[in-house]
Design a protein that fits this description.
It is found in: Periplasm. Component of the lipopolysaccharide transport and assembly complex. Keywords: Periplasm, Signal, Transport. The chain has a single domain, classed as lipopolysaccharide transport protein A fold, CATH 2.60.450.10. 20% of the residues are buried. With 172 residues, the protein is mainly beta. It starts with a helix and ends with a helix.
Length: 172
């Protein structure tokens, strides 16, 4: 039984470190804390599921969701973990290295650590200070730093830019 408990602890720990890919410099060195009403581990499929009032913190990062599923790929597959968060909505908050907050929300958030690709689906929004972008689907390629937003059948992409904040960003 002790061996099984150690294996569960090791698998859970390895899967949790994958969340640090969302973080910036200082946040990645901070401990990851996950609190939920329920947790389930499927060792055969290498999946950890957190449900009901899920709160994840790491440094300045705060993620709240109804459900979070972390999937670890088979060993030697060359792939990395994926994180799927569900909620009405999933929310996240982080302070950037320059001290500015970034907030986001969507009905579903998917992050592939191998490709470093973030997808926000359903009533998606990214906001920094008073500037924001809304769409049905927002994707962000972390490596290339490329963002794309798409509208839905009944909605268009909306972007609000605050000129004074743009000028401050150019001045830096």
């Amino acid at each position: 039984m002790k061996f099984v408990n150690n294996k569960i602890f090791l698998l859970t720990t390895l899967m949790m470190t994958s969340i640090s890919a969302f973080a910036l410099k200082d946040d990645t060195n901070q401990p990851i804390n996950i609190v939920s009403d329920n947790q389930a581990l499927d060792m055969e499929k290498s999946v950890v599921t957190f449900t009901d009032n899920v709160v994840i913190t790491q440094g300045s990062i705060l993620i709240k969701a109804s459900k979070v599923v972390i999937t670890r790929p088979p060993e030697n597959s060359g792939k990395k973990e994926t994180v799927d968060a569900f909620g009405s909505p999933v929310t996240f908050h982080q302070l950037l290295d320059d001290g500015k907050p970034v907030d986001g929300k969507a009905n579903k958030v998917h992050y592939d650590l191998g490709t470093e690709f973030l997808t926000l689906t359903g009533n998606a929004e990214l906001k920094q200070l008073d500037s924001k972008i809304n769409g049905e689907l927002i994707t962000y390629d972390v490596k290339k730093q490329q963002l794309r937003a798409n509208g839905g059948a009944k909605s268009r992409v909306t972007t609000v830019l605050i000129p004074s904040q743009l000028q401050k960003a150019k001045g830096k």
